[in-house]
Amino acid sequence: MSRSWTVLELLRWTSEHFASKGIETARLDAECLLAHALGTTRLKLYVEFEKPVLEEERARFRELVRRRAAERVPVSQLLGEKEFWSLPFQVTPDVLTPRPDTETLVEAALALAPETEAPLRILDLGTGSGAIALSLATERPKAHVVAIDTSEAALQIAAQNADRLRLSDRVRFAAGDLFEPVRGEEFDLVVSNPPYLARAEAAGLPPELAHEPEAALFAGDDGFAVLAPLVDQVGEVLAPGGAFAVEAGSEQVEAVAERCRRVGLEAVEVRRDLARQPRVVVARRGES
Ligand SMILES: C[S@@+](CC[C@H](N)C(=O)[O-])C[C@H]1O[C@@H](n2cnc3c(N)ncnc32)[C@H](O)[C@@H]1O
Questions:
Q1: How far apart, in whole angstroms, are the C-alpha atoms of residue 176 and residue 237?
Q2: Same domain assignment for residues 30 and 170
Q3: Is the Cβ atom of 177 under 6 angstroms away from ligand 1?
């Protein structure tokens, strides 16, 4: 008979195992996966350190640990969920796992678009899990949001997330390239976290990214294949005085800001993320 393991022993063993495989967040990952296998929370693990773990719970945990260490599946996909803007988002291999840095974009967008008498019209281009669109819809309870993506599979997940958050009546999902599904419409706020990695960067990236959709990560040889037409065309769907906020790589932000000025957008500014890196460009269409 195999010996019994306590919560603490499993955590220690797994943290060391993950660290030996080069996983930087070894202890955190071990805690998240063990909590998931036991059907509890990370916080509760701390008062259950001495509790023995049942064999069937351990078998569930072992499989999660194997997939994390050997296949480098991101924790978010193993749990099927990621918190963003304090909201729960379902995550699958069809959507990018929402990143904490993208909360900078949500914050910047909210500052640009206070609630108004007439419902705000918001557009999220490249919605993925719906993280940005649904966070904005939560913060602006009268707003109507359109969320576009080229990926039908991503839109299905985003729609399920909208259902779970009871936002489906104010969020419309549309499949298509860039602004094509909303030609002729106008928005008070346009936001986007488009793919912005250059193909050439692929080799040096963390192995976890192989589990995320390519279309969510890569944008041509230079990383501007979506950002460039996005900035060039955004004026066509912005209402007069409408606001624009877009995320980009820290080394791309200046070029994006310059492009915004070139296409005639006003009040162009850069916002920094939690690590103080330039991350988001904000701008406005003039009033005329
Ligand atoms: C970086 S992910 C962002 C997902 C989500 N908004 C977030 O911040 O977590 C980019 C998303 O844009 C979508 N996308 C890529 N190219 C697009 C295009 N030309 N038009 C519309 N959506 C596009 C991808 O399918 C992906 O879901």
A1: 15
A2: no
A3: yes
Gap between the Cα atoms of 284 and 282, Å rounded: 7
* Same structural domain, 153 and 199: yes
Distances (CA, A) of 268 to 32, 173, 245: 40, 28, 10
Cα–Cα dist 140/134, whole Å? 10
pLDDT at 116 over 90: no
What are the φ and ψ backbone dihedral angles of 178, each rounded to 5 degrees? 45, -125
**Same structural domain, 253 and 221:** yes
109 lines ligand 1 (CB under 6 A): no
Task: Tell me whether residue 78 is in a domain.
Answer: no
For 15, the token pair is 């943290």
Q: What is the structure's pLDDT at 170? A: 98
- pLDDT-derived band of residue 201, with 50, 70 and 90 as boundaries? confident
In this predicted structure, the answer to whether residue 2 has a pLDDT above a threshold of 90 is no
Assess whether the C-beta atom of 148 lies below 6 angstroms from ligand 1.
Answer: yes
- In-domain check, residue 76: no
252 pLDDT tier (thresholds 50, 70, 90)? very high
Token pair recorded at residue 121: 């019209």
State which residues form the domain around 246.
84-284
* Ligand 1 pocket, residue 102 CB under 6 Å: yes
Same domain, 66 and 192: no
Mean pLDDT of the chain: 96
Tell me what the mean pLDDT of segment 223-244 comes to: 98
Q: Which stretch of DSSP H or E encloses residue 243? A: strand 238-247
Asked if the structure places residue 21 within a domain, the reply is yes
* Stretch 176-190: mean pLDDT: 98
- CATH number of the domain enclosing 97: 3.40.50.150
User: Whose C-alpha lies nearest to ligand 1, atom 13?
Assistant: 126
Q: How many domains does the chain have?
A: 2
